[in-house]
Amino acid sequence: MIKYCLLPLIVLLAGCRDTNNPEVSKDNDLTVTNSTINTHALRHIVLFKFKEGASADSINLAIEAFKALPAKIETIRQFEWGTNNSPENLNKGFTHCFQLTFNSDEDRSVYLPHPDHQAFGQVLGPVLDDVLVFDYWAEEISKR
Q1: Predicted TM-score of the model (pTM)
Q2: Which residues sit opposite 30 in a β-bridge?
Q3: Which of 50, 53, 87, 124 is the most exposed, having the fewest neighbouring CB atoms within 10 Å of its CB?
Q4: What CATH number is attached to the domain comprising 29?
Q5: CA end-to-end span of the chain, whole Å?
Q6: Looking at the domain assignment, is residue 55 inside a domain?
Q7: What's the gap between Cα 97 and its chain centre?
Q8: Which residue range is the domain that position 130 belongs to?
Q9: At 61, is the pLDDT very low, low, confident or very high (cuts 50, 70, 90)?
Q10: Are 98 and 134 in contact (CB under 8 A)?
């Protein structure tokens, strides 16, 4: 009889763990320690230079279409973007930067031909003058 009473308790305790402790928390191959985040992350950097005659509305439509992709393509682990604000004036006309993070080459391979990514390209194409894409594996991210 006692073993039948202990079984639910054992199952309950097996499912309990401290997910708030950064020393033991793991999420998508991301391990947090006190000084660094050890990660296995594939970064996909995209820079856009828009055509001189492109309207602000058309550019904003393209940006909104890009920002919608993480909700449509589940292999995108992280997404962030911003506009150039460097005082060095070395951006060569590129004004917008987007950073997507994937867990693997396979995840990126799902993203690239994905129908929603291709549809975004159709919205972007008419206003795009140039694009620069740079992918790399992030080995370590410093944490302060």
Answers
A1: 0.71
A2: 27
A3: 87
A4: 3.30.70.100
A5: 53
A6: yes
A7: 13
A8: 23-142
A9: very high
A10: no
